[in-house]
Amino acid sequence: MVQELKIRNFLSFRDEVILSFEATKDNTFEDYQVVEVVPGVRLLRLALIYGANASGKSNLLSALDFLHEFWFERKEDLDQSTDAVPFLLDTETPIEPSSFELKFFVDGIKYWYTLLLDEKKVISEKLFFYKTVQPTMLFSRDLQNGQSIIRFNASVIKVSQAVVEELTLRCLSNMSFFAARNQVNCTLPYIDSAINWMKSGILPMIEPKTQMFEYAGGKMLNDNELKKYLLNFIHRADFNITDITTEKESVPMPGFMRNAIIEDKQIPKFTKEKLLADAFFDRLKTEFEHTVKNLRGIEKYTLPNSLQSEGTRRTFGIEAAIYECIKGNNFLSIDEIESSLHPDLVEFIIEQFLKVQSHSQMLVTSHYDPLLNTVDDLLRKDSVWFTEKEEDGNSRLYSLVEFKGLNKISSFQRSYRNGVFGALPNIQN
């Protein structure tokens, strides 16, 4: 589980910001929304972020998405960018490094990861774990004379010199240590546990434009439990869908695709001939059974996925991802969760996630402020965060619990709209 994310000089965050999942002493919804990962450390399962457009909400989610991509992207040469984007609305920050820190728990062990890099190279990368209250280094990676120097803590990890040399050779200055480690046959205790969580524990971010329906259909092919989960959810969410069928079908290759293959000079002749000879490709076919009541009684009709509303398709995709998140005790980020969804459905999705006892976590952004009126009825106060863009373009991140007098507020939505918490667009009359 994620305990804390700290970033600086990345996208719109010039100054250091900290997103913490550590719960306050408040015991509201303790059984479902708070997980005590080790004695004395209580982590939240949800963080919900509000803010005006272009205030930095999406950029916060992008920070985790960037880390997940960077950790395991293998670079072919030194000319490739690290893809780190510093704060650009300044004269100094574009030439300064970006900084990331992530604290997380895997199997009851706390890890602390730090990364310092610019657009061309990694300056420093380290991983610690906590055997006591003080961190113990597992590995450090620093840049010296243009080359990555990797060091292991010999008291914890026994690594041969040959492995160290191979890791150093493969770890180009513009890639993560973890991407290099994937290319070397060795065993690295504790580090490998962290890597496994980094790979599978953080799911790809869902954006408003993310096409999730094919993802859901593909998952249902081999997971009947997912199908049951989705059918149960849409039944409770008042859809009239009573069944879903998903299968692969073989369809002829369209003419434009054939022409593209023929004209592509990068495709080897043998591969091109094989592709054209097959002339068919597999695609998912998903159909929905709708049950309706009319003058004739109860009737069932089957409709293809192309005739489902965008809201229905997005609901299926989001819920398939949430199912995987819960099942694997993973971390899922959803940007603008209300996109294409009815407000009541947004609340229902969050409510159903929070009612499951799990070590899964979600980081969600939203403009749907009526959810704020569910604070203390559905949401915990420490689950709510805000982003605000300052006049110089820098994004601030702060928590609802930083404000005093919260127990005297009767409507958090009204207080938000009245500017009590900031994080509103500055619309000129």
TrEMBL record:
Q: State a single Gene Ontology molecular function.
A: ATP binding
Protein origin, superkingdom: Bacteria
Gene3D superfamilies, alphabetized: P-loop containing nucleotide triphosphate hydrolases (3.40.50.300)
Fetch the InterPro entries from UniProt. Answer: ATPase_AAA_core, P-loop_NTPase
Q: What keyword terms does UniProt attach to this protein?
A: ATP-binding, Nucleotide-binding
Which stretches are transmembrane? none
Q: Name one Pfam family in it.
A: AAA_21
Domain ATPase AAA-type core positions: 47-143, 257-368
Q: Note the PANTHER family from the entry.
A: ATPASE AAA-TYPE CORE DOMAIN-CONTAINING PROTEIN, ATPASE-LIKE PROTEIN
Q: What is this protein called?
A: ATP-binding protein
Q: Which organism is it from?
A: Hoylesella buccalis
